[in-house]
Automatic annotation (TrEMBL):
Pfam families per record: adh_short (PF00106)
Family per similarity comment: Belongs to the short-chain dehydrogenases/reductases (SDR) family.
GO biological process: steroid metabolic process
SUPFAM superfamilies noted in UniProt: NAD(P)-binding Rossmann-fold domains (SSF51735)
Protein name: DR9C7 reductase
Gene3D superfamilies given in the database record: NAD(P)-binding Rossmann-like Domain (3.40.50.720)
Domain of life: Eukaryota
Gene name of the record: Sdr9c7
InterPro entries: NAD(P)-bd_dom_sf, SDR_fam
Gene Ontology terms for molecular function: oxidoreductase activity
Biological classification of the source: Eukaryota, Metazoa, Chordata, Craniata, Vertebrata
Length: 244
């Protein structure tokens, strides 16, 4: 019994030593770029990394979101407006990050994109409804990752893709789940390819987060989709289905 206890203590000590050896040292001068920092997980992470001493560049969709974040952060935290569905906006954000890193490269890219999405049966939707989800949550994140790879290679940095685990359960139609599965596949491929350059790629599948669900917006969108359906599709589902 004594030998087992001593072995357990030794294993615990070895574990802590190995874990500590992987901690990031000398945080000064390390830049981390985070998307979707207006609210929620992105905003919380930006503030936490800022307190830890990183140079945080936080991308916000609105000026108000950026101002609120700066008001509760240090002077070293910078914000930039970013619309992930707009290539021109992405190009401006990349130029801002390049200027801020000043030749040092980018230590970390944290990709995070949530927001609302249309939730409805698949044959209630049109291709543009899928674009609303995929353009920002998938294609936009891929585009900004590709454009920041040279900076990540220079710093031998890391990419961390935050993916809501509920998006991996495809129980409803629309582009939300597609975007999450797509980011999983993109991350897995990129991880293998970037090993040669010393760039690490990780996926964080976070759980359900506390959020305010606006039922009025949800019902409004559902009603709009229902009203634009052809009579044949509405009849196939029936009024009772829609109400329930």
């Amino acid at each position: 019994l004594h030998i087992a206890i001593l072995a357990s203590i030794l294993c615990l000590i070895i574990y802590w030593l190995i874990r500590d050896s992987h901690r990031v040292r000398n945080l000064s001068g390390k830049h981390v770029f985070i998307t979707d920092c207006d609210t929620g997980l992105g905003k919380s992470l930006a503030k936490w990394l800022d307190k830890r001493g990183f140079y945080v560049i936080a991308a916000c969709a609105t000026e108000k979101g950026g101002q609120e974040l700066q008001s509760c952060s240090s002077l070293s935290l910078k914000t930039v407006n970013l619309n992930l569905a707009d290539s021109n906006s992405i190009a401006r954000a990349v130029a801002f990050v390049t200027k801020e890193t000043a030749g040092k490269g980018l230590f970390g890219l944290v990709s995070n994109a949530e927001g609302t999405a249309l939730v409805a049966p698949t044959d209630w939707l049109r291709i543009e409804d899928f674009h609303l989800a995929l353009d920002a949550r998938l294609l936009g994140l891929i585009e900004i990752t590709l454009k920041l790879l040279p900076l990540l290679k220079k710093a031998e940095g890391r990419v961390v893709n935050l993916i809501n685990a509920k998006g991996l359960m495809a129980f409803v139609g629309g582009g939300y789940s597609l975007s999450k599965w797509g980011m999983e596949a993109f991350s897995d491929t990129l991880r293998i390819e970037m090993q040669h350059f010393g760039v690490k790629v990780s996926i964080v599948e976070h759980s359900f987060l506390k959020a305010v669900v606006n039922s009025d917006v949800f019902e409004r969108d559902l009603l709009r989709l229902w009203n634009r359906l052809t009579p044949e599709i509405r009849e196939s589902y029936g009024e009772k289905y829609f109400v329930e």
